[in-house]
Amino acid sequence: MRHDTLVDAIGNTPAVRLRTDTPDGVEVYAKLELLNPYAMKDRVARRIILEARRTGALREGAPIVESSSGTMALGVALVGTYLGHPVHIVTDPRIDPVTLAKLEAMGCSVHIVEAMTAQGWQSARLERLADLMRDLPGAWWPQQYSNPDNPAAYRTLADELLDDLGTVDVLVGSVGSGGSLCGTSAALLEHLPDLKVVGVDCVGSVLFGQPDLATRKQSGLGNSLYPDNIDYRLFDEVHWLSDDEAFDATKSLAREQKIFAGNTSGSVYRVLTHLAARAAPGTRLVGIMPDRGDRYAETVYRHEAAGPVATAPTEVPFGTTVHRWSYAAIPRRHRPVLFFVESNTTGTGMLALRTATRLGLAPVLLTKDPARYAGLEETGCPAVRCDTEDEAALRAAADSAAGGCPVAGVTTTSDFYLVHAAALAGSFRRPGHASGTAGLCRDKSLSRAVLSEAGVPQPAHAVVESADGVAAAVARVGLPCVVKPADGSGSQDVRWCADEASALAQAARILAVTENVRGQQRAGRVLVEEFALGPEYSVEMFCTGGEAVCVGITQRTTTALPYFVETGHLFPAVLPAAAEAELAESARQALKAGGFELGPAHVEVRLTPAGPVVIEVNGRLAGGMIPELIRAATGIDLLEQQLRAVTGRPLALSADRARYAGLRFLTATETGRLTGITGTAEAARVPGVESVVTTGVPGRAVRPPQDAYDRLGHVVAVGSTPREVETALDTATAMIRVDTTPTP
Prior knowledge:
With 744 residues, the chain is α/β, with parallel strands linked by helices. It has 22 helices and 30 strands. An eight-stranded mixed β-sheet has the order 1-2-9-6-7-8-11-10, with helices on both faces. An eight-stranded antiparallel β-sheet has the order 24-23-20-21-22-25-29-27, with helices on both faces. A four-stranded parallel β-sheet has the order 14-13-12-15, sandwiched between helices. It is globular and about 90 Å long.
């Protein structure tokens, strides 16, 4: 076939029928993506770079910068240099000499980082990449893990399979960035709705619910993070192979089929032939073979297995930790349903829906108003509109939405719906809180009474239901005091009061409001509390099997009085061991008093000169992106553990790393209208900064923060010491400007 340019030669790879021992009428094909000029990622590089040039994101002759040590680097080098762009590849000492030689031969600048940083080699490479982006005018970064043009590039692969074979019954592919198998299968499913999609991963990869193992040796598949380009709704089955099994399979592919490929192709071959041997007559199976084996000649092909290699997989329930060739069925048409009764509107709300999908569940959001949730459509999660205040209506909507599928569980990420979720879970006989426990967490006046009865240290307090009782309450607890609604959330209407007049005014403001921000009836009660002196912490707890585990303690900073809005966090807090133990024990006693037995809890505590006093007990994950800080610092995904707990799955609460993570919120300094937030791109390039997120929309009314709803975004940083984190946050936030226009 004639091509005018080398870039045109990418794709149109052959689908070759393999010689396999299968039942009569079963056909097995290998789609030889390794016969692209370099490898399968040539397709991605072509699509991403041409689209960036078309849209103007990549200017003529501008530098391209990518972090990769494998075939994506080669694809970017091929297409980028061919089209006249200087290409800079950031990699680490693990790059194989064959790939390095190819990159240098094509004229790339290869930047090899010398040492790991806070998050290992990956963070070291991204920090060097950020430096290059800053120093190279007009530089562009393909971002293969989140760029939608990655999976879109494989529509051509699907078209080729349809042209060559007409139909496919089973598609087997490896999963790394998620582009190849998800992009190909999504396109094929438009024509072949009964296609079975089988993903191949490696033991020690987090992609399908396994713990991360830094010692895994396979490359080209697996990951230590969750790429945006993986659509977990597409899979019917997933297999995991150990290093020994993958490398043995790769050598078998060469010996049996004369295909000298990499370990991704070998892993696909092992699973493909296993499925083919058990397929019904008339079944046509295709495996995607991504890469050639030349870069593995001295590693994979010289590898000797440490012990016996499995010849067949073990079937396990999805979510089971595996150590050898295993598989789990996750049929996309009959997945267990996980109901969310509403959600929080910021932070982890939409992330929870995506996490549920990744766990092989079918999340359904039961909501009164889907429009409330920004980003809901991008999750792909169905939203069922119903009256979430009505227990009977909730159950009816859930029964209809389940459509005969098993109900795995019920949960929520919103403070306002703890009681509703508990009731619905109980009606399905699924794990959850007792309604009374959930009610204690929602109504702080009730939890105060329970803590008092149990003797748990807390501030002196009084409950008032009318302005007439404020004076007596203030006299009882003393001045200054804190006045807040009994059923509030997000620091809303919480105020420090220096005198009786301001306490009375604040109580009157609270009592005048009859509905909260979700339209729910307010409790009509106000808490007047002693102002406890001392630094504020939140103790992040997780309850399972009757035991309350302290995951860690978050150090919190808040606005100047009279408000208590969190402005930043550091996890873990810098504390003496004795103080840590005291704080954890105070949280444990508070949860015991409330009968709290399942899932996450966020206990707010002040460390006074007399010891810890409990400020609030929240029967949920912490807000303010604290779960993401915990994940970055320890590797523990508390959001995932919450979903595991409510679906009766085993938990993973052991840390696999020991770092520090911090956050600063972006807020306005003046009252007015938001005109824009600038400097975020520069802030994101600061070494140690993991993410910069803005949530404020231009035109929105803003003010200096009085509650959590006044936040406009955040910056997250990670480091090996608290000082590293604070320095990164100081540097990044200094670059960001929140611009406002005053209003009358």
